[in-house]
User: Fold B box-type domain-containing protein from Mytilus galloprovincialis.
Amino acid sequence: MATDQSVLLCDVCQKRHLNKSAEEYCPQCEEALCRECRDHHKLSKWLKSHQTITVDKYNKLPSFIKQISQNYHLEEELLEKVSTLEKTNCREIEEIITKLEDEKEKVDGIQKEVESVKLFASVCKSSWEQRHSKKVFQPMKSTSNKYMTTGA
Assistant:
């Protein structure tokens, strides 16, 4: 926007290297507009909802009010960047969650194998104990039978 408060030039025309006096100002676009550009501005599908004010009213606004609209655009940019970062972080978090779920499935599989090995070891131990206990008790049985037959 032109900075000279006494004669405000149309920002759109200045972009086309023309110097026309502005009659209105669009706070949403932050542009001063001549009559012709204002008419096009009001007809535009995307801009027709914008409420323009006269240049006189704009010039009477305190400078801190004019600064608010400029800060608003900075805020919009920051919000857009934050949104982009959030989307990126969400994607990364989703990838990490997927990897963790895959790792959990692997751990669950290992736990099942460990339980299987424990069960097999328990069966083996029981079987060994049964075989070992028969060997220990067999000589005793034969000795006791021997005493029983001789004593009768």
Remarks:
- Residues 8 and 115 are 83 Å apart (CA to CA).
- The chain has four helices and three strands.
- Helices lie at 11-15, 35-43, 55-60, 63-151.
